[in-house]
Amino acid sequence: MTTTDRASKDRPEPAHRPGSQAERSMRTRQRILDAAHAVFVREGFAGAKIEHIAEAANTNKRLVYHHFGGKDELFRTVLETAYAAMRQAEQGLGLDLLAPRDAVDRLIRFTWTYYLEHEDFISLVATENLYKAEHIAASEHLPRLRSSLVELIRDIVRRGEASGEFRPGIDPVQLWISIAAMCWFSVANKHTIAATFGPAAANPAIGADRLAHILSMVHAFLAPVADKPAPSDAMPT
């Protein structure tokens, strides 16, 4: 055996690293993004540190900065990803295949359930509101996501007005804000609701009455004027 052969035999073989460099880079980026999501939910934007995120992602700060530039861009990407996940789920509801009122009901039930199952989303958005939406205001992707939601609801409203199920003149953006607000409030404020009105009123997981109330309020808002009960002139006793 020659000296060269012996040196080659004694040299440790490189560790097996499956996939191309681009694939490994994408996996690292996704690990950082997943870790950042968890850290921002747990610690907020101010409390989150790049070193905490790097540690949680099993990588180093240099790679975090390489992929995302800094904490602001990383938080914006986390928000964009969270919004995109909800918009994608909404697009998969098949609302265009349903009668308008059924479509609205499905959207309300979906929104209610989504917030229940994704309280991390509520935490992220609450944090962003503390910063006056400065991160998502700079996003190039969120306007497209917003447009897809507005068009989805606008289509339901148009069909409902055309069929006579809904009254004319409904603003799809205002409709969505009202639906989201009623569903959001019950989940985001469950602790203060419990302290004020008792645990039963605050537990969205068993809040079938609350969901029914939201549905009935939206139905009343959408109903043609002729279908609405006339206001009573009688004074309460």
Describe this structure in words.
The termini are far apart. Mean pLDDT is 87; it is low at 1-16. The chain is built from 13 helices and no strands. Helices cover 72% and strands 0% of the residues. With 237 residues, the protein is mostly helical. The longest helix is centred in the N-terminal third of the chain and has 27 residues, at 21-47.
Summary tags:
237 residues, disordered N terminus, DNA-binding, Tet_transcr_reg_TetR-rel_C_sf
Low-confidence stretches: 1-16
What's the mean pLDDT score? 87
Order of SSEs? HHHHHHHHHHHHH
- Give a quick account of the main beta sheet: strands, pairing sense, barrel closure: none
Rg over CA atoms, rounded to whole Å, is 25 Å
Helix content, binned percent: over 70%
> Strand content of the residues, in percent?
under 5%
Layout: helices, strands, pairs:
Layout: H1 3-10, H2 21-47, H3 50-56, H4 61-68, H5 71-91, H6 100-117, H7 119-130, H8 134-137, H9 142-163, H10 172-188, H11 190-197, H12 199-202, H13 208-222
Short description:
This protein has 237 residues and is mostly helical.
